[in-house]
Amino acid sequence: MALEDQRLPARTASYEADPDAVGRVLLLYSGGLDTSVMLRWIQERYGAEVVTLTVNLGQPGEDYGVIEGKARALGARECHIIDARDQFASEFILPAIKANGLYGEGYPLFTALGRPLIAKLAVETARRSGCDTIAHGCTGKGNDQVRIEATVATLAPELGVIAPVRSWQMGRDEEIAYAREHGIPVKGGTEVAPYSIDDNLWGRSSEGRWIEDLGHPPEQDVFQLVTPPERAPEDPQEVTIEFERGVPVALDGHRMGLVRLLEEAAAIGQRHGIGIVDHIEDRIVGLKVRDIYEAPAATLILTAHRELERLVSTIHQNRFKRRLDEEWAYLVYAGLWWEPLRSDLDAYMEAANAQVSGVITLKLYKGLARVIARSSPNAVYDASLASFAESGGLFSQSAAPGFVELFSLQSRMAWRVRNRS
Ligand code: ARG
């Protein structure tokens, strides 16, 4: 179908832009094929002006000058590049550390944490630049559309949203043809579709191609960040991470700001093959997906944080917090960053983390980060009580049989009932 014959899609949700009211669009622009095609397509299709926004969340190897040049060449009226690394680290990654944020026991949520910030910056930039609409490049099959649109609809009900990739009915080949026709540079060979990559300070994900074949073991070219463990150094490395009230503050004894600490942790982990996760997860939109994750910084810091938290908390706090951690991760994964329950949970996370100060030593070797030492002034631990020697004070061994009698009472009674005959 020729582009001109396609009708603009009917609207389903209240926040979707009325096509007649699209005059000036804030486009979330990565510089890749989809969003570059969008940049031209929006101007053509709606007769609208486009302002671009590219957000730096610490994705490695990005050249923002090149992205800006490309946007201008494609007709952008304004190009905004925002370095949001500090805000991302302190307002999004840090709460995730305090909540031991992992979804499905393996995904450290880096994309899920980035989207609400990107969308919030899009709202602020749209308002400042007089835009009426926000455009993003998500497909209709993923979680990212949920995270971005839920954020825009929550924070800026006056703005409309368009998601051209979801509605334009172009396949990859048509997109490339469109790009060629409109002088949009297409990177590399086009025979092999690229992986769908998303990355930031906290990790990197790859989807698509052979990854969609669940029986296919990882091909080495997917690992652009982490050294595959079998090629990691023969010599192990020890690294210490110090926390104050749940905040990582020093690496190997050197105090540094959070962004730098995350970057250095990533660099150390990468060398040793740390943080590769081959993950099947339940998307919010029903589908299951397989992702290959590389998250060296998250793996080191979460491993250390969890260990320290276990040490300074009681058994009751530890058991309870695991459940809240899981709920927190689910809300964030599901794109409900602005949901009040998330900030309610954060209040608990803050309280629990007030004790989380101390130092954890990890030993890194060929893909594994193992805790080998820990110390904390707040450890709920007394070496004299733990030892086999008789000790006075808080613990009396002679009370133990009475405890066993009562603690096992119901189990013993039930056993008797069930084995009556
Ligand atoms: N599956 C992960 C998530 O839902 C990663 C998504 C990566 N996004 C992307 N556009 N490639 O958060």
Q: What is the structure about, briefly put?
A:
The chain is α/β, with parallel strands linked by helices and 421 residues long. The chain has 14 helices and 14 strands.
What does the model show?
The protein has 421 residues and is of the alpha/beta class. It folds into three domains: 3-192, Rossmann fold; 199-313 and 356-375, Argininosuccinate synthetase, chain A, domain 2 (Alpha-Beta Complex), CATH 3.90.1260; 383-418, no CATH class. It has helices at 33-46, 64-73, 85-98, 110-128, 144-155, 164-167, 172-181, 258-271, 296-312, 315-333, 340-353, 383-386, 400-407, 409-418, and strands at residues 24-28, 49-56, 78-83, 133-135, 160-162, 196-200, 203-207, 237-244, 247-251, 254-255, 276-282, 288-294, 358-365, 368-375. The longest helix is centred in the N-terminal third of the chain and has 19 residues, at 110-128. 37% of the residues are buried. The model has no long low-confidence stretch (mean pLDDT 95). Bound molecules: arginine. The site of arginine has 11 residues, from α4, β6, β7 and β12. Arginine is lined by residues 111-112, 142-144, 196, 198, 205, 207, 289, 291.
State the strand order across the main sheet.
Answer: 3-2-1-4-5
How many helical elements? 14
Unreliable stretches covering 5 or more consecutive residues: none
Look at the structure and give the mean pLDDT.
Answer: 95
CATH homologous group name of the largest domain: HUPs
**Assembly classification:** single chain
Total number of strands: 14
